[in-house]
Amino acid sequence: MPSTQVSQHEVFQEIASRSYCEWPVYDSTPLYDRSSLGGLEEDVRTVARVWFEHDAHKSVKDFVCRLPLAYVDFRSHDSYSGSTRYEMEQLVRTFLLKELHGWKHESALVEYLDRYSSVRKRLSFESVPDQSTLWRTWHQRFEPELRETIETAARSILIQADRADVPIPRQPPERSSSREQSNSEEPTQQKILDRAEDITEQVSGIVHPAFSLCRGERCEIHENAFWELQTYLGLHEALAANEGARSFLYESDRSRTPLGHNHRAHLRDLSIGRIRDMYRDAVKRIVDRLSETDAFHRAGLVAIDITEEDPFTGDREGHENEIIGTKEKNTEYAYQWATIQLVGNAVPLVLDARPVRKGDSRREIVEDLLDSAQSLLHIDGVLMDREFDSQHLLESVSQRGLTYVVPKRMYSSEKAQAKRLLKRGQDYYTADRKLHLGKNEWHETTFVYKRKENSERTDYGQYAVFLTNAPAGAVREYSYRWEIESGYKSIKRFKAATTSKDFVLRFFYFAFACLLYSIWRAVDLLVQVILTNEYKCSPVVTAQNTLTLLQKRTGVG
């Protein structure tokens, strides 16, 4: 069934209603203009995603003919000068069809246009172009970057159509480029940096529009300048807003940039809820982009943990509910933030973050973070630290159909069992248990005792006790939890410095640092897939590489 004016209107009305959708993207971010191929790729993904969700849209051919392209400026990607018989827009649509079908030669395209006169007319061809004309168009008229964009756009169309159960002419190909070296060759550092620069621009353009300030109209300082300044602060370790704003003023290409006090004031006007909404929108954009690669594990393992800022040494009067005691048994106080992050074989994105206030239960925190993460992707299991070993919390996780692995705090009964294992020289032991939930309700779990390797202890402390509702062997996965600790080290490196006690400002700085970390890991995955067609957890693009490239994207340096 072909699309109608009504169905097309409904598609773009839906795009306009989605806070995380910006179309056309060049109109929402300075990173792109009408000639930007990265912007065109993002626009195709955005429109295709919503287009094929519509019940009336069941044809990729119809999508190619209807895709809005009139606003795109192809002149800088056209090697021909002077008048030509065929317009770039109709040729781009034509080669989108060729890539959708995976035809190797233009002869198949000619036969297709000759057979389907309706398609030929919708592409505004009075007659079928001959094979040599089409060959010259692809190999001589189109710049290499445009050819790659057409290949990328066709792949996006196939993926989005397939997800909506729309018939497709072939399965989406592996994401690769004819310009890249073969998989048997190790990519050079220069090749990695070149690809990272392109992808950082794309990912920045995807994420950037998710953030907005509640400001009035006709402000003299562009809103993007605030996000560029915040990124700039994250590029320099322990840089505060006042000092950073002065440096940014001289290094930025913008004529007007915010002062430090102005920047902080606008951030304070945000709410915790608004910051979290913007963060989740940004991460959804990243997930949607990464999900186009086979290397992105949408079904995954997550870790939940709480991190603390450096101990707070000032007067916390009036802020006792926000500057709370640390996890260590001491007299120190600190701000605390909770996160949920992909771990294991997946790219370690921070899926959500939230503040921890006095009185927040661990169950409340876990349920909130899982709600958010499960709205983004499918999750199989959860890893948590021993502070989350409450039976009511674990029952809540089980009720979601998720597995968990959590170390248990050792009380007298666990210590006694560990002593018996030590006496017998036994390294491993499991036992099914029921934990009392109240009244006549119980939570079924498995206790797994495991002797630590190379332990310095000589008593029962050689053993760790884990709780799991999965087969006992799942405790091996707990080692993946340390990836969230590793992530925190980078996140703290990306966080702007402040001595302010403003809770909203503090949380925004942390959340934005989580976003920079997630951008880095997303860029690394995409670079690896393009260069090698696979993803390994060890980054090939370092954090410093990404920071440098983000610095270039903000017009600094």
Residue runs with pLDDT of under 50 for 5 or more positions: 176-184
Question: How does the major sheet shape up?
Answer: 8 strands, mixed
Number of strands: 10
C-alpha termini separation: 52 Å
Overall SS class: alpha+beta
Q: Work out the helix count.
A: 19
- Helicity, as a percent range: 40-55%
Strand order of the largest sheet: 5-4-1-6-7-10-9-8
Oligomeric state of the chains in view: single chain
Strand content is: 5-15%
Q: How do the helices and strands follow one another from N- to C-terminus? A: HHHHHHHHHHHHHEEEEEHEHEHEEEHHH
Q: How confident overall, as mean pLDDT?
A: 86
Net shape: globular
What would you report as the Rg, rounded to the nearest angstrom?
27 Å
Would you kindly provide a brief summary of this structure?
With 557 residues, the protein is of the alpha+beta class. It has 19 helices and ten strands.
Describe this structure in words.
The chain is of the alpha+beta class and about 550 residues long. The chain is about 45% helix and about 10% strand. The protein has 19 helices and ten strands. The strands form two sheets. The chain has an eight-stranded mixed β-sheet with strand order 5-4-1-6-7-10-9-8, with helices on both faces. It has a two-stranded antiparallel sheet with strand order 2-3. Helix 15 links the parallel strand 6 and strand 7. Helix 9 packs across helix 18 (about 505-530), helix 13 (about 270-290) runs parallel beside helix 18 and helix 17 (about 480-495) crosses helix 18 (about 505-530). The longest helix is centred in the last third of the chain and has 30 residues, at about 505-530. The chain is globular. The relative contact order is 0.10.
